[in-house]
Design goal:
Length: 457
């Protein structure tokens, strides 16, 4: 009887052990499946992205994925990205050799990989010619990371690069610039009809960050524009392009520029055209007051833009807001010398211009021609509406408040009856000192300014 009981007990114990073993195994498999499904970093079994697959080149942080797994793109942001160092593409970084082709080659590979990073390493000087980085056919979220480097403009003319960087992650595309970029000064090396030096085109989520400097060497352009003879190459019978932004963004979404310095641009320092969701902050723009037409930041056909905590000194508008702009917020900015913050000129050559929902607040102006200004040409059409200027401090500003519907930048302009309509403009808490007169209003007789709120506070 005792033996029978022991056998029964042993049998029961064996059954319990088998059941526990099966239970643990199911839980273990269930746990592995749960982790696999939750992880955004494995592409196995994931949905295919609309851009198709890409290939990974260079060094990759984290677990290396096999080619089979990499054939299906991940759908979530990775914590680690593929790295493409320009030195691995035969860039010299000696300040003498032209490294434009190396940058182009690095980008060509990075362009195929979603979330990749182009690395420009520290302690090197790279000569790079006029370049345009565009990305309509690249994988999204690629980055250019510049670590304490100096990038010099090439002494030779090169075709523009096909595309630039983008970065995946919480910050989207990121370009790290901690060194210096220097523009060439020879007209031959720029070519004809080139309207920019560094261009970012058709990108989604491009971010330029760092503590470096973009040096435009603009004194050559300023001298050339003022002179009838090209002092650099008179035999070319041509001048350097009159409009050459140092840094231009075109047709891009989710753009950030922060930390860097742009100085001595040939003309406009930083330009956004047809862009959306733009942030500019904690950066410096610097050109002497004696320079020529050196706008700080130029906005055109762009919306949802925020500019803040930025220092600007130049010879023209610190911020110029042109046609097609809406939802612009500028605050905590230092401006001077320069022409202040301007909307316009709008309506030139009988064109239609529309600007709306502009806020400028908490700005210090010092030694500027105007403070906040709206300027339109005679003969134009369209509207400027919902504008607010508040908490503006002016010091030694010629004319702090200006509305001019007869704007003319030459000796004389033809009188015309049509005009851009101005309405819904508010001034609040503007204080400080002026050198000529505090306010200048010149409104059209046929389309007079309306709903203008006087300075309160």
């Amino acid at each position: 009887m005792r033996d029978f009981r022991l056998k029964c007990f042993g049998l029961i114990l064996l059954v319990i052990l088998v059941m526990c073993s099966k239970f643990d195994g199911c839980e273990g498999r269930k746990g592995r499946r749960w982790r696999k499904q939750k992880s955004p970093y494995s592409s196995a079994g994931g949905k295919k992205g609309k851009n198709g697959g890409g290939h990974n080149h260079g060094s990759v942080g984290g677990d290396y994925l096999s080619p089979a797994l990499r054939s299906n793109p991940i759908t979530e942001y990775p914590m680690k990205t593929a790295m493409f160092n320009v030195l691995d593409f035969r860039a010299k970084g000696d300040g003498i050799t032209d490294d434009t082709e190396a940058f182009q080659a690095a980008w060509a590979d990075a362009c195929k990989v979603e979330g990749s990073t182009v690395v420009v390493p520290a302690k090197f000087e790279f000569l790079v010619g006029p370049i345009s980085f565009s990305g309509p056919y690249c994988q999204p979220n690629i980055a250019l990371q510049k670590q304490l480097v100096t990038i010099l403009a090439s002494r030779f003319r090169h075709d523009p690069l096909n595309s630039f960087l983008q970065r995946k992650g919480l910050t989207k595309f990121t370009s790290r610039l901690d060194g210096m970029i220097i523009a060439p000064t020879d007209a031959k090396r720029w070519g004809s009809g080139l309207l920019w030096w560094i261009e970012f085109s058709k990108l989604q989520g491009i971010s330029i960050r760092g503590s470096g400097t973009i040096e435009g060497q603009g004194s050559v352009w300023w001298t050339t524009t003022k002179s009838d003879v090209d002092p650099i190459n008179a035999e070319l019978s041509m001048k350097l392009p009159q409009i050459k932004p140092a840094l231009r963004f075109y047709g891009s979404y989710n753009v950030t520029v922060t930390g860097i310095t742009i100085q001595n641009s040939p003309q406009c320092h930083l330009k956004f055209d047809n862009c959306e969701a733009v942030q500019v902050f904690n950066m410096t723009i610097n050109s002497p007051g004696s320079s020529l037409n050196t706008d700080g930041i130029h906005l055109q056909n762009s919306r949802d833009v925020m500019i803040h905590h930025t220092n600007m000194s130049c010879s023209d508008d610190c911020v110029s807001i042109q046609t097609g702009c809406s939802n612009i917020n500028i605050h905590s900015v230092e401006c001077g010398p320069g022409h202040g913050i301007s909307i316009g000129g709008l309506g030139r050559d009988n064109t239609k211009a529309c600007v709306s929902n502009i806020t400028v607040r908490d700005v210090n102006m010092h030694n500027t021609m105007t403070g906040v200004r709206i300027k339109t040409w005679q003969g134009g059409s369209g509207s400027v509406e919902s504008i607010k200027f508040s908490n503006i401090r002016v010091s030694e500003v010629q004319t702090p408040i200006v509305i001019d519907q007869f704007y003319c930048d030459r000796s004389s302009c033809k009188n015309q009856t049509s005009a851009v309509v101005l309405s819904g403009i508010a001034y609040e808490n503007m204080k400080g000192t002026y050198t000529v007169k505090p306010v200048h209003f010149a409104c059209s007789d046929t389309s007079p300014c309306s709903d203008i709120s006087p300075n309160r506070g």
